[in-house]
Specification:
This protein is mainly alpha-helical. Among the domains are: 117 residues; 100 residues. It is 58% helix and 9% strand. The protein is built from ten helices and nine strands. The strands form three sheets. A three-stranded antiparallel sheet has the order 2-1-3, with no helix packed on it. A three-stranded antiparallel sheet has the order 5-4-6. Helix 7 packs across helix 10 and helix 9 packs antiparallel against helix 10.
Length: 396
């Protein structure tokens, strides 16, 4: 008998780490063949033999080997959990259906298992669909970025060509303007030289006549004076210069006026172009909701308490651009009125604008000026953020 027992053990395999081992084997523990819901133990083939032969074990229920048998037993009735209560979503034993879950909807574990498996399959299919949809969105986003990059590169190349042509045109116009001014100056010089030459000739004639008159006035010979007086007294053929003059060329800042007008026009057109670019929702979609909402919340918090001048005013770059372009005069007025400078510090899409008083102010006076200027800037920022029609500003 003992030899037969030893031989049966020898023919069985030891339990692997992920397998249920026999609770009655000494080391090495053998692989369990069945678990008993009455004994709450697992048995290898050899130690399971009494359950097959003994009369006392006939009512014991054997199941496939399970680890932690206590987890599949009802803690209240000490019976195996064989049913599932759909009302309370818990596993129950047969006795539970006659007490706490008497009027509840109860099904077998297999039916509940199959239902949950089907539900899991459906949920997994939905999850897989969402994964595919999001991967498609990622692909579309990357494709959009690539297309946007190509469009941006083309636009930059075109802008380089346009501005190069514009600079060339300005340089060419500058040369032409200088040539016109120089030609006008040469014409004035030539006209003046002609007048000067003619005047010098008349001066020579007049000086000669003056010499003859002085010589005749000094003679003591009466006859000679009278005989020569008439020829000498004949007027010299000269021009009336009273209405003749050389007028200096008048430019009155023509070039400066034209350049100022050109600069102003170009600046306005560039501002309009830049704002048109910021109107594109494809560019601002990434920050349209989160950035503006966050900045609005930050702004509300700052307006409810004394703002921190030292910390500066944080905002999105598009807001700062809108302020500098649309409210440039207001910003200039703030700087002039309070004698401060506005110093933006850029970090990715964020800008922190710091207010600093001009040098020479005392500490108390500087703090006061900075505080007043900061509040004025904060009010202007509030106007930009809360405006839903501001061009180029992301809406919340």
């Amino acid at each position: 008998m003992a030899d037969q027992f030893r031989n049966s053990i020898t023919n069985q395999e030891p339990a692997k780490p992920d397998e249920v081992s026999c609770d009655f084997c000494t080391e090495p523990k053998l692989k369990a063949l069945k678990s008993c819901l009455v004994c709450l133990a697992s048995f290898c083939e050899t130690h399971l033999e009494p359950h097959h032969r003994g009369t006392a074990f006939k009512r014991h229920k054997l199941i496939d080997p399970v680890k932690n048998l206590e987890d599949i037993m009802c803690q209240k009735h000490d019976r195996p959990l064989e049913l599932f209560c759909k009302t309370d979503h818990v596993c129950v034993c047969q006795f539970c259906t006659e007490s706490d879950h008497k009027l509840h909807q109860v099904v077998s574990l297999k039916e509940a298992y199959d239902g949950k498996k089907a539900e899991l399959g459906k949920t997994d299919a939905e999850v897989q669909l969402m994964i595919r949809e999001r991967r498609l969105k990622i692909s579309e986003a990357r494709q959009s970025v690539e297309l946007s990059k190509k469009a941006a590169d083309r636009e930059i190349a075109d802008s380089v060509k346009v501005f190069t042509a514009l600079i060339s045109c300005i340089e060419r116009s500058h040369v032409e303007l200088n040539n016109v001014i120089e030609h006008k100056q040469k014409t004035t010089e030539k006209q003046a030289e002609g007048f000067i030459k003619e005047l010098q000739q008349e001066i020579t004639q007049l000086e000669k006549r003056s010499s003859e008159l002085k010589q005749l006035s000094h003679t003591e010979d009466h006859i000679q004076l009278l005989q020569n007086f008439k020829p000498i007294n004949i007027p010299v053929p000269i021009k009336d210069w009273t209405k003749v003059s050389v007028h200096p060329s008048s430019y009155v800042g023509t070039a400066k006026t034209a350049l100022d007008h050109l600069t102003n026009t170009l600046s306005k057109e560039m501002q309009r172009l830049i704002l048109d670019v910021y109107k594109d929702r494809n560019m601002t979609a990434a920050v349209a909701g989160g950035a503006t909402a966050a900045h609005r919340q930050l702004l509300i918090g700052m307006m409810r308490k004394d703002p921190s001048v030292s910390g500066g005013l944080p905002m999105h770059q598009s807001h700062w651009m809108a302020m500098t372009m649309t409210f440039d005069r207001v910003l200039a007025n703030i700087k002039t009125k309070y004698s401060v400078s506005l110093e933006p510090e850029f970090s990715r899409d964020e800008v922190t604008v710091r207010v600093k008083a001009a040098g020479g102010s005392s500490t108390v006076a500087a703090n006061s000026l900075e505080s007043h200027a900061f509040r004025a800037l904060l009010r202007l920022y509030q106007k930009v953020v809360t405006s839903s029609t501001m061009p180029g500003v992301p809406e919340g």
